[in-house]
Amino acid sequence: MNPLEKINIGVVGVGHLGQYHVKHLSKISGANLIGVFDSNNKRNNSISKQYNTRIFDNLNSLIQSCDALSIVTPTQYHAEIAEQCIRSNKHVFIEKPITVSLSEADNILRLANNSGVIVQVGHIERLNPALLALDSYTLKPKYIEVQRLAPYTTRGTEVPVVLDLMIHDIDIVLALVKSQVDTIHASGLSIMTDSVDIANARIQFVDGTIANITSSRIAKDKVRKLKAFQNEMYVTIDFLLGLTEVYRIVKNKGPKGLAAVPLNENEGNKQIIYEKPPVNSFDPLRMELSNFIDSIKGKTKPIVSGSDGREALKVAIQIHEMIIKDLH
């Protein structure tokens, strides 16, 4: 494909999140927003007027008019819509989680591989500026602690907290740890809904790394924090505040101007320094969708591939099933 050509793209589902896909795709220079399809006519009309885009009265018409589709529907419809798109040789961006089941995800990946189309999954926290601020550091964490807490709302309660909130952090942990999952221990409770509302998972990897992840949708305040510990370095990330901090040991004097504390009296040439790497200001969803467009053009690869989405789903399902088994 000519990298200068615009990618004709449509959005399937223009609810709470889908409207932001429309907003950004209407502004990305390499994209040409063809139109939208949603089962809710009121939402269709509102989005059409706001962004001056076409409403399609059936999904197939939109698919046939596009090079690529952004799928922002409830998760239970992801597989059916993605398969229809891929069978028509269209690239797909699928909001997280990729599908409800592993078999659905496997089928999508098989079809995409046979068709040669791009599948990207919307794990937006992978593009959080506070996480990307660590790109200049070599991360080899041995212990990771993550908290993702949210106040209760009625939206999204049909999805277990593991597949709604925790899966963000599962994806981040799998990206940070270059090893296979060995064992998982999980527990959780249903508090406000019939589904699991609070969950904790301890994931041990083959190389010995431990990740402890807690997610809740019945907290008083929003919390999205990650701490990672490795040999001679400790990092903290506050995804909400956009704050990244690094504590590490250096030999002799640290970089000029940084606060330093001697490690101990016996190792006077080693110091603990504190760094606050700059966190750039940008919209992660805009960057995510731009990455999708550039991947279609062959300029780069998806930051979160279909396979990545599948692996995060696999671990999330294991955790959820373990919790459900204990609850019953």
From TrEMBL:
<dbReference type="InterPro" id="IPR051450">
    <property type="entry name" value="Gfo/Idh/MocA_Oxidoreductases"/>
</dbReference>
<dbReference type="InterPro" id="IPR000683">
    <property type="entry name" value="Gfo/Idh/MocA-like_OxRdtase_N"/>
</dbReference>
<dbReference type="GO" id="GO:0000166">
    <property type="term" value="F:nucleotide binding"/>
</dbReference>
<feature type="domain" description="GFO/IDH/MocA-like oxidoreductase">
    <location>
        <begin position="161"/>
        <end position="222"/>
    </location>
</feature>
<protein>
    <submittedName>
        <fullName>Uncharacterized protein</fullName>
    </submittedName>
</protein>
<dbReference type="Pfam" id="PF22725">
    <property type="entry name" value="GFO_IDH_MocA_C3"/>
</dbReference>
<dbReference type="InterPro" id="IPR036291">
    <property type="entry name" value="NAD(P)-bd_dom_sf"/>
</dbReference>
<dbReference type="InterPro" id="IPR055170">
    <property type="entry name" value="GFO_IDH_MocA-like_dom"/>
</dbReference>
<dbReference type="Pfam" id="PF01408">
    <property type="entry name" value="GFO_IDH_MocA"/>
</dbReference>
<feature type="domain" description="Gfo/Idh/MocA-like oxidoreductase N-terminal">
    <location>
        <begin position="7"/>
        <end position="123"/>
    </location>
</feature>
